[in-house]
Here is the input.
Amino acid sequence: MGKIFREYISNKQVFACSSCATHISSNDDLVSTSFTGRFGKAYLFNIAVNIDTGPEQVRMLLSGEHTIADVHCVSCHAYLGWKYLRAAEQENEYKIGKCILETAQTVVMDGNAPRTGWL
Here is the structure.
């Protein structure tokens, strides 16, 4: 088995996997804080790194029907949220290609020091 390459995000505020602290996204890529995931509050991001995506699935979400793929940490395989692949309704097409990260599955880091609070 080869070594996993992980991208390091050099940003003041980094969102990371709560299980292993692998960097996932930054505050610069945060689009919205008004989403709900399986475990409660969730945020929408333009870009997420160090993730693996699961198989495509059609899911009925609060905003309508979407084709999504669950996203997991590339290092520890913990569930983090999902990625939007397609939207059934035109008003939701802005989400395509973006990722939802659940706040219960991630932690905000300031540099390399974990922090307990969100924004």
Q: What stands out?
A: Residues 58 and 67 are 4 Å apart (CA to CA). Residues 115-119 have pLDDT under 50 and may be disordered. The chain has no helices and ten strands. The beta strands are 13-17, 23-26, 30-37, 40-45, 51-61, 64-73, 79-87, 99-102, 106-110, 113-115.
